[in-house]
Specification:
By secondary structure, this protein is of the alpha/beta class. 24% of the residues lie in helices and 29% in strands. The two termini are 19 Å apart. Bound molecules: guanosine-5'-monophosphate (5GP).
């Protein structure tokens, strides 16, 4: 049985993601090049991996990247506290960070990670996210680069999971109702 049998609708196709990644990559290249900088990408595990792999192909600068894995502390989400499951392997002191996310929902994750990166003395932090759900925002944080704005839907694919499954799908999809039950 294929995981594709569990899909109700494909929300964003592989081709749409590729085209948009190329546009974002060009925009990021122009913005950083104008200031004579190259971004240091920090990608959040695990959901942003396919998007990182795509977008770096279209950033025509000497971009380097590292990974972090974080989770919100249960019960204290409103404070935006996060627990670091895997920290960066490299220093970000004085670097212009491009934080790479799969989806921004409440905004707690990027808000907390941005604070953390500034505590680690990053020079600047901008956020690029494949998806944004602005209607779900709980904190005042706006990603600089957004692939697609979506409604309040739980999506999977292209790195995003439901109980660790469906990350391998090459597009963004919504699962059949019975799968979520
Ligand atoms: P935030 O801290 O902005 O509320 O949450 C961001 C994280 O929540 C994302 O990195 C992602 O792991 C998870 N998330 C939020 N919305 C969705 C969704 O629709 N699908 C999946 N698979 N994960 C989501």
């Amino acid at each position: 049985m294929s995981v594709r049998d569990d899909i109700k609708t494909v929300l964003i196709s592989e081709e749409q993601i590729r085209t948009r990644s190329e546009e974002l990559g060009k925009q990021i290249t122009e913005d950083y090049a104008r200031e004579g900088k190259a971004p240091y990408a920090v990608a959040l595990l695990r959901g942003s991996v396919p998007f990182l792999a795509d977008i770096i192909k279209y950033i025509d600068l000497d971009i380097q990247y590292d990974f972090m894995d974080v989770t919100s502390y249960a019960g204290t989400r409103t404070t935006g506290d996060i627990k670091i499951l895997k920290d960066l392997d490299t220093s970000v002191v004085g670097k212009d960070i491009l934080l790479v996310e799969d989806i921004v929902d409440s905004g707690f994750t990027i808000e907390a990670v941005k604070k953390l990166l500034f505590r680690k003395e990053a020079a600047s932090v901008k956020v690029v996210t494949l998806l944004d759900k602005p209607s779900r925002r709980k904190v005042d944080v706006t990603p600089e680069y957004v692939g697609f704005e979506i409604e309040d839907l739980f999506v999977v694919g292209y790195g995003m999971d439901y109980n660790q499954h469906y990350r391998c799908l090459p597009y963004i999809a919504v699962l059949k109702d019975e799968i979520y039950e």
